[in-house]
Amino acid sequence: MALYSDKVMDHFRNPRNVGVIEDANGVGEVGNAKCGDIMKIYLKIEDDIIKDVKFETFGCGSAIASSSMATELIKGKPLSSALELTNKAVAEALDGLPAYKMHCSVLAEEAIKRAIADYYKRAGIPYDEAAFREFECCHDGE
Ligand code: FES
């Protein structure tokens, strides 16, 4: 079996939603201290709906594929469903990632959560900060 699924290769080679949203109202950036990869998510939120989402990822192929898939999964969706997106759901949507590449999908989940938290802060919307767990780097094989 190939190490990477066709979907991973497709989203790596033809990533969706790459770029910057100049008038984004939520931006989240995360990095993994171990591999040095960085992911930035831009959200344009209107009436609790993610009208647009873009990403910039300086990272490995799995991180790029995870960013691309994660943005596809939340585009046009309510904030509540974006908040429920887990890295496992992103990996499953990609038909799986190798175990030692699962942390790449964690970047996508965390970048989206940080972008939503940023939106809440900018908009002055109270939110449960504890619910936005911090990105934990450096977990081997997670
Ligand atoms: Fe670090 Fe993929 S190797 S995000």
Detailed description of the structure:
The chain has 142 residues and is α+β, with helices and mostly antiparallel strands. It has one domain (6-124): Sufe protein. Chain: A. The protein has helices at 6-13, 61-74, 79-83, 87-93, 102-123; strands at 26-31, 38-46, 49-58. A 3-stranded antiparallel beta sheet has the order 1-2-3. Strand 2 and strand 3 form a beta hairpin. Helix 1 packs across helix 2 (61-74), helix 2 crosses helix 4 and helix 2 packs across helix 5. Residues 135-142 have low confidence and may be disordered. Residues 32, 35, 37, 59-60, 62-63, 101, 103-104, 107 line the site of FE2/S2 (inorganic) cluster.
Most strands sheet: 3 strands, antiparallel
**Widest sheet: strand order?**
1-2-3
CATH class designation: Alpha Beta
Q: What's the helix count?
A: 5
Low-pLDDT runs:
135-142
Helix-strand topology string = HEEEHHHH
Q: Quick one: how many beta strands?
A: 3
Helix content: 25-40%
Strand coverage percent: 15-25%
CATH architecture: Alpha-Beta Complex
What count of structural domains?
1
Write down the CATH topology. Answer: Sufe protein. Chain: A
Distance between the termini: 21 Å
Q: Which geometry do the CA atoms define?
A: globular
Attached small molecules: FE2/S2 (inorganic) cluster
Name the structural class: alpha+beta
SSE arrangement:
Layout: H1 6-13, E1 26-31, E2 38-46, E3 49-58, H2 61-74, H3 79-83, H4 87-93, H5 102-123
Antiparallel strand pairs: 1-2, 2-3
Helix pairs in contact: 1-2, 2-4, 2-5, 4-5
Bound molecules: FE2/S2 (inorganic) cluster (FES).
